[in-house]
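Supplementary Methods S3. Input chains for the assembly prediction are listed below.
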Amino acid sequence: MSESAQLHELVISARGIPPDLKVADVADMFMDDSHGKLLSLPVLDGDKPVGLISRARMQQVLFRQYGRELYGKRPVTSIMNASPVVIESSTDLTEASKTVSERLQFPVTEDFIITQDGKYLGMGAVMHLLRAMDERLTKQAGELHTAYQQLKASQLQLIQSEKMASLGQMVAGVAHEINTPLGYVKNNMEMMEMFFETSRGLLQNCDTLVDALLSPLITEEELQRKLQGVANLKESLAADNADDLARLITDTHFGIDRISEIVMNLKNFSRLDRAMAADVDINECLDSALLLARNVLKNRDEVVRQYNQLPRIACMPSQINQVFLNLLTNAAQAIEDRGRILVRTEADAEWLRVTVQDTGKGIPADILPKIFDPFFTTKAVGQAPASGSPSATRSCSSTAATSASPPSPAKARASPYNCRSRPPRHCPWRKPHERESHSPVRG
Amino acid sequence: MSEKATLLFVDDEERVLRSLEVLFKSRFRVLSTTDGNEALDMVKRERVHVIVSDQRMPIMTGVDLLRRVREASPNTMRLLLTGYSDLEAIVNSVNEGEIFRYLSKPWSAKEILNTVTQAAEIAMSLEEAAGAEPLGPAPGVLVIDEDPTVAEMVKAICGPARPVKWSTDLDEAFELLAGSDIAIVVCDIRLRGRDISAAVKALKESNPTILTIVQTQLQDMEMLRSLINHGQIYRFLPKPARRGLLEMSLHAASRRHLSLLSAPSLANRYQVERNEEAPVAALSNRLLGYLDRMRQGKGF
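Predicted structure tokens for the full assembly:
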């Protein structure tokens, strides 16, 4: 679809007026029905447009007292508009309508001249141009809508696959977190079992020894043998060292508690069944996310928590947790060797603010505008997904949050997430009403 | 064992160390640390027979540590004990760490006791074995792979000095193994649409001096774990084959082969775990016949 063809289609053919034609004759031409559609006629020197004369101008001149007598005999050039709007037929419709709207005056009393390579082609009416623009916009809006629908569909797909990828990573991490305590718990249990078996054997031997002692028929040799058996078992138990085992029991309890804690956090983390929850403690959410991110952060990075007292708010814990996990993962990945991650929370009357700051390499200025683009990542394809910020934005935009980025890569990277604690209507990040009066304490 | 062997456990979770210490301390001298650098110092300072390391640790990963231990003390038997499924780590544990076993968390106390005891016995037998690397005849290489480019690549690397045989049939390959002087096998895990890993494992079991370089597109954790524990493969390389990688592996295998020639007891190090999941019965009688011939001590 070529733009010039479109402007070309708007051409209304109209005979040009020679420059020396008298005003009275021009008036007659306007009376001619063949020009009924036009507000104005072109004045042409050969095929070169030199001006434009409109009905309105003619009326202005002729309706005056003695107008016809004064001007009738003068050439049209004396009253014409010597600088009419002239547009080349190859001009884009949008460009043409821009020129027209800039140059033509309100109310519209003139048309515009369309030329081809500077030579007169015909006239163009503003109404026609408007209609063409309208059709085009409608068509574009339709295309845009379709494109938007497609984009939305593929974005949903991408979000899903991104979620699956980070889910896979998280599952592997959690499996490792659980396998470690499970490892020593199982080992300890097996050792306790061995200890128990030996103890049971000892107890049985003791029983038979007592029986033997009480029996009048027992021989000295037999008694000696039984005594030796008990002594042997006692020795092997001593080697197992009851103190060690007591310690192992403590460790085992610790390990089981640890596994319970991980499982509980996992449940807290993805409360998919409860999309929207009132009374969410953001500090707890952060703790959950930190626990699950432990695998990424593990020992490499020191985590400093600066939690201030926060009002409980209504939000979607699963989404907000995902944001925190992504921020923490990004922070950990920004740190190349070892570093520190600061997690700070604070609240004032209106906002609740969460800051994740790392001592990593920062965000280079050239990619800063892009970090909230969907699926933006600095990772190579195939590496672990780290498109945290975009999904963070998505989640946050659905929880009425604003985010600011750090000023320079030289400085440590910080990702403050401001969430309204008393936002406008329809905001899922709303503080419950009964807590409106609560004034958050700053640390 | 007249003297107690020394074990070294490395894990960033102290409770794991405590648990293992109690399990082993009646039969072994047990050292432990949460710090990879300290572990390395211990290995350099004294004779450590077996090291069992976690993979994911701060400061140094398990594979990194085991690679350095291999350089500092080649006769220390290296085992990885990990709860994290990380394909890259396990591949590196073969190629860089040349580990004896890959153990998963949670583990069974009896199994780890058996495995570590076996490793310690092997390490004790290696005590006197390490000698100077002698010059010997270039060992033969057998390629078992349908892909002709692999055979061509191996031939190009080996040159005229080292005989290279190529087979795309398992029976034929084993006949070659039984009949000629083959020290290194380069193979895929799949041959003509069949999984031949049972044969690869059986080959190592019957002839521990043969060094196996597995090249495959398959990347499966469980398969690889089994190839380590039951097949003691020497290298695990990705496909399509890359010449540089293959060349390095072949050179390393030749050097290893020469040291095995000079001190045959070193081959103890490649003892495989008895494979109970996929019994050798899965192999054809013909293959078993070849394996018997090899076991009866032809070749080296």
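The longest strand of chain A covers residues 339-347. The domain at 3-124 of chain A is CATH 3.10.580.10 (CBS-domain).
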